[in-house]
Amino acid sequence: MKLIDCPRDAMQGWPTFIPTAQKINYLNTLLRVGFDTLDFGSFVSPKAIPQLADTAEVLDGLELSSTTTKLLAIVANLRGAETAAQYPQIRYIGFPLSVSETFQQRNTNKSIAQALDEVARTQELCARTGQEQVVYLSMGFGNLYGDPWSPEVLGEFTQKLDILGVRIVALSDTIGASVPETIAPPFRELTAAFPHIEFGAHLHTTPSSWHEKVQAAYGAGCRRFDGALGGYGGCPMASDKLTGNMPTEQLIDFSVEVGAKLPLNELALDEAKKLNQAIFAAH
């Protein structure tokens, strides 16, 4: 079982700017915890996400010599991928590709066909730099727009990504629509049809529904999970009516439940939890 902590997703929509030095301190603590991967920042237009305009500066401050955790940066287009490719410290370049035509247009002002072309060009870029692309299939568990969704649709997208050579695909719960009935069938079918691809789950949840969602994905063969400490991202986990990121703490609890041994530094994790609360309570 792999844990990917996503402070980038927790911070990106935060209404007040988190100082760069504070981000660096928090991320360096997370790097000491022992997560497989840290989704630490993004290279997108500062107009779109001003909170992460300092990603390059943050990267310069990260202590990478003594960590086994790999870095992942999110991009929204080929230009962002070309920027991320300039930093060999970044192992993974994450690209969101929507299975909903409506959302693809709203999110990136591109069609799915245009976005797929950029995925292909990003894959070629990664082949040259030695980095690896992670494609997030957003609206992976359904959408509000009436666009086609089914495990078969997800399979068609994955087939196209497979041909391009993409080897990590994460189904993403963009709007908090996931329920066990829409989580388990796609993972069951995709892991069987594409055993050479690593499938991940980027789930959103309310406090009461996290376990059933993780169990559905895990039981259907998923072993890669995204989370964010405190469940921040989208909406903070303030009440059962709100839908935020899957809390990393609960993914850790689940790993213990299923007997997955994760090499985590508990002292660093406790420190990260304290910093997490200080950051999001103060801003």
From TrEMBL:
It comes from the Bacteria. Residues 1-262 form the Pyruvate carboxyltransferase domain. InterPro entries: Aldolase_TIM, HMGL, PYR_CT. Keywords: Lyase, Metal-binding. One of its GO terms (molecular function) is lyase activity. PANTHER family: HYDROXYMETHYLGLUTARYL-COA LYASE. Belongs to the HMG-CoA lyase family. This is Hydroxymethylglutaryl-CoA lyase. It comes from Hymenobacter volaticus.
